[in-house]
């Protein structure tokens, strides 16, 4: 079959890598990069490290307000769909690139496949929640990473085309962690030492678009008992530049590649983040996590306190991050067996019969 896959943001490159490898053994995939992320350390680095095929198209839409950015993507993707006439279009996750791809295909009556379907935070103010609900409701095949996601879809009346495949990010972690550990062993040249730092990321709109929240997060980071290593998303970097925040205890670095990020996650005392993907990677690598949000879509990570949510209040952040941790606490296996890419391919092939 001929499939068009639309990707555009950092986590989508990581998800695309395992799928493309499996799918391309038997089928044709045309890769469309919307250009939502474009800095080399937000885009190229992932293609190089993970051997992701070079995109057949790059729409270079760049940054902008939601409406404008999504509209540019829609226009570009529609053009490609009309020229390429694929059998279906695949999107990952919940970004503006996800929604644009799904909507462009749906309007042309081209089948829509959604990987990472069924996730919900139940907070409709989040752009991600809007994108994922809309995408799920116009998808023909929905690949769910967890049982919870299947149930969310059922509750919204979506059962047709749904399959439980496991989480493709788990595939990526299992495949890449040995490579990352080998590549970076004994080379942590940062001003932090193994298991004695907090690895932090902050980029979600709910935190970055509220100056008070960002100030509180940085204040808490400064007061923590161990140094904070913060590979900083350009969105947050741009916002804090003029805020005059002090960085006494915070080592800010540029965004890093996936392999180094896995290494840093595995070797951290704890991850402190508002990222969706990083919460799970911490769980997979048995590093405790604190999530700087009121909800998470990845509720399985909360079991046995591997991950704890905290409101953005300085004393709550400090208390949660500095909690006593035990890495011997049991985990549940909710994310599949690391073969989500193959299961997604099988579900696609079954649907063609
Ligand atoms: C997007 C997704 C979010 C996801 C995140 C992954 C939407 C609505 N949000 O958020 O769900 O968690 O990607 O990282 O799709 N910028 C650069 N260089 C880049 C990319 C972005 O400087 O290569 C800066 C620009 O100032 C831009 C801002 O970051 O305005 C935000 O980028 P955008 O892609 O709109 O949203 P993200 O916050 O990255
Ligand atoms: N990541 C990375 N380098 C960084 C920060 C994050 O490779 O400097 C990876 C991280 O390991 C995870 C993915 O990016 O695989 C998560 O993306 P992000 O946090 O940007 O988006 P979200 O998952 O919240 O949508």
Q: How would you explain this protein's 3D organization?
A:
Strand 5 (111-115), helix 5 and strand 6 form a beta-alpha-beta unit. The protein folds into 2 domains: 2-167 and 336-352, Glycogen Phosphorylase B (Rossmann fold, 3-Layer(aba) Sandwich); 175-321, Rossmann fold. It contains 14 helices and 13 strands. The chain has 353 residues and is α/β, with parallel strands linked by helices. The longest helix is centred in the N-terminal third of the chain and has 19 residues, at 66-84. Residues 10-11, 14, 201, 203, 231, 255-258, 261, 275-278, 281 line the site of uridine-5'-diphosphate. Uridine-diphosphate-N-acetylglucosamine binds next to helix 1, helix 5 and helix 10.
């Amino acid at each position: 079959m001929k499939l068009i896959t639309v990707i555009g943001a950092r986590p989508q490159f990581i998800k695309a890598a395992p799928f493309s490898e499996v799918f391309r053994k038997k089928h044709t995939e045309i890769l469309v990069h919307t250009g939502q992320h474009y800095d080399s350390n937000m885009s190229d680095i992932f293609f190089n490290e993970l051997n992701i095929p070079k995109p057949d198209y790059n729409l270079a839409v760049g940054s902008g307000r939601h409406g404008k950015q999504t509209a540019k993507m829609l226009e570009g993707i529609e053009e490609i769909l009309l020229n390429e006439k694929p059998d279906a279009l695949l999107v990952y996750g919940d970004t503006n690139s996800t929604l644009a791809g799904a909507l462009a295909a749906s309007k042309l009556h081209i089948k829509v496949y959604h990987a990472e379907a069924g996730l919900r935070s139940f907070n409709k103010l989040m752009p991600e929640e809007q994108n994922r609900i809309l995408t799920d409701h116009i998808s023909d095949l929905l690949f769910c990473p967890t049982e919870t996601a299947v149930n969310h879809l059922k509750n919204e009346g979506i059962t047709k085309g749904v399959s439980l495949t496991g989480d493709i990010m788990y595939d990526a972690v299992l495949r890449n962690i040995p490579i990352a550990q080998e590549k970076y062993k004994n080379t942590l040249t940062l001003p932090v030492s193994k298991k004695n730092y907090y690895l932090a990321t902050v980029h979600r709109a709910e935190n970055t678009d509220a100056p008070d929240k960002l100030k509180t997060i940085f204040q808490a980071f400064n007061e923590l008992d161990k140094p904070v290593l913060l590979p900083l998303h350009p969105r947050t970097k741009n916002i804090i530049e003029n805020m005059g925040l002090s960085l006494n205890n915070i080592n800010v670095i540029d965004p890093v590649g996936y392999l180094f990020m896995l290494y840093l996650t595995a070797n951290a005392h704890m991850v402190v983040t508002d990222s969706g993907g990083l919460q799970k990677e911490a769980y997979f690598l048995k590093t405790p996590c604190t999530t700087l949000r009121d909800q998470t879509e990845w509720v399985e990570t909360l079991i046995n306190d591997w991950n704890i949510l905290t409101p953005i209040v300085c004393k709550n952040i400090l208390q949660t991050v500095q909690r006593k941790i035990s890495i011997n606490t049991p985990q549940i296996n909710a994310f599949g067996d690391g073969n989500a890419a193959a299961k997604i391919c099988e579900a696609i092939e079954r649907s063609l019969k």
